[in-house]
Amino acid sequence: MFVRAVTPFLSAPDVRAAVAFYSTHLGFRVVTLHPRDDPTLAILDAVHPAGGARLGSIAFDSTLWPGTPAMTGQIHLDLGPQGDGPSRVLAVLARMGGAAVVEWGPEVFDYGRRECSIKDPSGYSVVLSEESDDAPDCKE
């Protein structure tokens, strides 16, 4: 038996806000919205921009867990290699404008990645990450 996919299933007080954030700013595609008029459940797929291959999913629910959402980790989104073009991390941040609440970064680390952490509407930390050949940022 092999796992076919992993889908984080997270609490979200406002499912509409979570759907808007992930679909508008991060390119996720809405697969399930239930009930459609006032959703308490949403499942979104990350899809490859060229060809639409499914890369992963994330689900949100507003009814299963009482209280404020909490996570001790991060949702880590790999944006791929920077390549010869501009930074994908910086492009996503620019496109988000004021919707991006940046926790740290962006910075290039000595392990060859440019990363930054933003907060989603439910308060989860979302790390935007890309491979980068740029020199690491110096921290003193």
What does this structure look like?
The protein is mostly beta strands. It has helices at 15-25, 88-96; strands spanning 9-11, 28-34, 41-47, 54-61, 75-81, 101-108, 113-119, 125-131. The strands form two sheets. The chain has a four-stranded mixed sheet with strand order 1-4-3-2, with helices on one face. Strands 5-8-7-6 form a four-stranded mixed sheet, covered by helices on one side. Strand 7 and strand 8 (125-131) form a beta hairpin. It is globular and about 45 Å long. The N and C termini lie far apart (48 Å).
List keywords for this structure.
140 residues; mainly beta; four-stranded mixed sheet; 14% helix; 39% strand; globular
Radius of gyration: 16 Å
Low-confidence stretches: none
Helix content: 10-25%
Tally of DSSP helical segments = 2
Structural class, judged by helices and strands?
Answer: mainly beta
Overall mean confidence score, pLDDT: 91
String of helices and strands: EHEEEEHEEE
The separation of the N and C termini measures 48 Å
Task: Count the beta strands.
Answer: 8
Rough outline: globular
Q: What is the subunit arrangement here? A: single chain
- Spatial strand sequence of the major β-sheet: 1-4-3-2
Strand content: 35-45%
Major sheet characteristics: 4 strands, mixed
